[in-house]
Specification:
alpha/beta, Rossmann fold, 3-stranded antiparallel sheet, 7 helices, 34% helix, 17% strand, binds fructose -6-phosphate, identical protein binding, Glucosamine-6-phosphate deaminase, glucosamine-6-phosphate deaminase activity
Length: 242
């Protein structure tokens, strides 16, 4: 695992945006694995300028998102499909049909998870997978105790994750408690992985992922098994590293 500690969140954001733009410049048909959340918000906001600066082409990429809430339709303002359309697809001019996410309102969520896993394989796999990290060490919505061999499936979110997500919903009872998420083995299949972590709240989870044992209690520690994983973090998130 390669660890790159930069001084600030801004530096992390800029570095990641450049990395993504260069991936698209080198391989315009890249299949990207994308994430949502506050960390990705900053990255996606920086991307249009960086794509222009690097002279990258973004129209031909395809993407698969890590996860989607079970029970939310794609036009729900808090669905990840809506997030990706407004933060990534529309500002960058990417045809939304090229951006895949699990369907949160599929009548049979388990079948939808299996279909999604197969669709990633049919696309030839993921070239570059972006990841954030939860305060409990989750990647995607692979909460602690997720099997290291897991594939795309339904996961019940932990209380701490539901609480962290509550900031996006009007009422606590509206926060979804289940998601369809790529599994840990699905994530490890990506040819390259880039995990971003910023802020002191991520310090303990990051230290466990990088320096702790490979353990289901720290899903992100599975990246220790990946031959081409980079962790990009700011000094606050790196504070608990030895
Ligand atoms: C969301 C996802 C999550 C987030 C993680 C960090 O698609 O996969 O694993 O990356 O919860 O979220 P933020 O960046 O909001 O702290």
């Amino acid at each position: 695992m390669k660890i790159l500690i930069l001084p600030t969140v801004e530096a992390v954001t800029k570095h990641a945006a450049r990395r993504l733009a260069r991936q698209l410049k080198r391989k315009p048909h890249s299949v990207l694995g994308l994430a949502t959340g506050g960390t990705m918000d900053r990255l996606y906001a920086a991307l249009p300028a960086m794509v222009a600066e690097e002279g990258a082409q973004i129209e031909q990429m395809r993407s698969f998102n890590l996860d989607e809430y079970v029970g939310l339709s794609g036009d729900h303002p808090q669905s990840y499909r809506h997030y990706m359309a407004t933060r990534f697809g529309v500002p960058l001019g990417v045809d939304l049909a090229r951006m895949a996410l699990p369907c949160g309102d599929a009548p049979d969520p388990a079948a939808e998870a299996a279909r999604y896993e197969a669709a990633i394989a049919e696309a030839g796999g993921i070239d570059l997978q972006l990841l954030g990290i939860g305060q409990n060490g989750h990647i995607g919505f692979n909460e602690p105790t997720s099997s290291l061999r897991s594939r795309t499936r339904i996961k019940t979110l932990t209380r701490s994750t539901v609480a962290a997500n509550a900031r996006y919903f009007d009422r606590p009872e509206d926060v979804p408690t289940r998601a369809i998420t790529m599994g840990i083995a699905t994530i490890l299949d990506a040819r390259e992985v880039l995990l971003l972590a910023t802020g002191a709240a991520k310090a303990e989870a990051l230290a466990a992922a990088i320096e702790g044992p490979l353990a289901a209690a720290s899903p992100a520690s599975a990246l220790q098994l990946h031959p081409k994983a980079t962790v990009l973090c700011d000094e606050d998130a790196a504070a608990a590293l030895r």
